[in-house]
Amino acid sequence: MFLTRAALVLALCAFAYALCVNLYVITLPGPQEYRESAMIVATDALARGQNLYSIQNQPQLTNMYGIGYHALMAPIVRIAGGSTLLAHRVVSTLLTLASCFLIVAALRRQKLQWSLAIVAGVLLYLDLAIRGADLGQRALPETILARPDALGLLLFLLSVLLPLRFDFSNKSLIASIALAVLALLTKPYFIFGYGVVGAYLVLIGRRKRGLIYLLAGGASFALAIIAATWLMPTYAANVITGTAAASAQGSFSHLFAQLRTYLMELPGVILIVIMSACAMRRRPLALPTFAAACAFVILVVKLGRYHGNSMIYFAHLLTPFLLLSAFGAIAITPPARRWGWLLLVLLDLLLLPLTAQRPPRAHADVWARWEQLLATKKNVYAPPPLDWILVAQHKPIYDGGLSDSFLHSMERPIYPPERVLRERYAAFLADLRAQVEQQRFDLIVLPYENGGPSLCFVPTTAVERFYRPIGQLDLPMDWQPGWCGVVFEPTKPLGP
Fold first, then answer.
1. Can you tell me the distance from the alpha carbon of 95 to that of 4, in angstroms, rounded to the nearest whole number?
2. For the chain, what are the domain ranges?
3. Residues 6+ apart with CB under 8 A from 185
4. Comparing C-alpha atoms, which of 309, 324, 322, 307 is closest to residue 267?
5. How far is CA 1 from CA 5, 40, 121, 339, 344, in A?
6. What is the pLDDT of residues 184-219, one digit of tens each?
């Protein structure tokens, strides 16, 4: 059919473009968003045998995502010779492609022809790797960067699709719980798949199996968090209660902006799902359609209002199941009657590349100047975009990229007691102040945004008193512009 071939050709062209951008981003010397270096810091610390969640490593190594991604990356960076942006991005890209392959494989199980299954996989890849339209809400293709997103997404999809593939057998449900535990330890919201599978079993009348699955999964999660916190004392405070406190900050305006953007990027697939659901009301509810509906509810009720991320929750939790549902409807539609669906697919294949983020520039000269400047110093206070340089030069880290999240970790933690966390935070700030006043920092770099310092742990008034500014350099992140670093040196020469 002409439209099928046209969709495949357009999809392959879009995939080639997105993959070229992806491969180019892998090679860029500096971070592409403010906190990307946080993953390099955490992996480096774990590879060197440090406990990321010990009390003494807070808030320098605070990490609200979990240990899973760094446990995977630590042996890789040992082999690669160091914790680098390159190594992390390569792994993220491979894991992202694996998730797209899962969508293709799941649709082939539904007897959808290869060409259209590949189109669905490409649409997911476009949504993850290049999306970023400023149609109401700026978004970053964070999944392909040095972040735990790609690993969490793969574990999440496996936890849902594996039971579906094996008709919810006992072994597949046990594997689903194990995958959900790993997903929880990688990025907490990816346990969503566990809830979907359990609720779906109850919905389709397999209540006993569903309830046993939910109870066994809940017990497994509790044991995993207890064990993690026993080994890493601030794990629950950072990853569970801290994440919950942070996600409480949000607004409906942020949600509506994301919904508007999402509707303008994937209108075809959304229309197919809605129209097919209305046309097939008498058919049993399919798991992908149920999962898409649950994801939409979770996004509206909670995650979509959180200001910490833009569009990424939609791409992870909603897009895979919308694609499975839409292309599943195409699979059961006679070829002669698919033309309407295929026209809508072609629309999305045009919109996603057209609304993609522009490829970032390398800015190699600017990052090289930062490397040269920091190489001559021993003790530097620097913002997260420079952490990858500090790691490579084996310098101490004071702001690991997610350190400000420790403020949320101190809000009503289960363990350790709030008093312990606040005492540690106060001691950390006191040490920084003492280092500033005693001019123990060889260099201080303050991050400036919109003309003023932002996200600083060192007391800026003390910095202005005991240090003098000697210039500024951009922190050039094209996908998150507007940052620069103002450089300060001591007002008097340091002693020997």
1. 28
2. 2-30+64-354, 364-490
3. 66, 67, 68, 71, 224, 228
4. 322
5. 6, 48, 20, 9, 15
6. 999 999 999 999 999 999 999 899 999 999 999 999
Helix extents (H) in 204-354: 207-231, 235, 242-247, 252-265, 267-279, 287-301, 312-313, 319-331, 339-354
Residue 418's nearest CA partner among 264, 195, 237 is 237
Across all residues in the chain, what is the average pLDDT?
Answer: 92
Task: For residue 34, give the amino acid letter.
Answer: Y
Long-range contact pairs involving 211-214 (C-beta distance under 8 Å, separation at least 24): 213/173, 213/176, 213/177
483 bridge partner residues: 449
Q: At what angle do helices 287-301 and 267-279 cross, to 10 degrees?
A: 120
Q: What pLDDT score was predicted for residue 131?
A: 73
* Tokens 């003023």 belong to residue: 452
Is the pLDDT at 136 greater than 70? The verdict is no
Alpha-carbon span 453 to 487, nearest angstrom:
12
The rounded distance, in Å, linking the Cα atoms of 288 and 323 is 9
The DSSP output letter for 250 is: B
Dist. CA 103–CA 288, nearest whole Å: 11
Structure tokens at 135: 């149609």
Dmax of the chain from CA atoms?
83
Beta strand spans in 153-213 (E): none
Pairing of strands 443-449, 452-453: antiparallel
Which residues, including other chains, have CB under 8 Å from residue 395's CB and lie 6 or more apart? 374, 377, 378, 379, 380
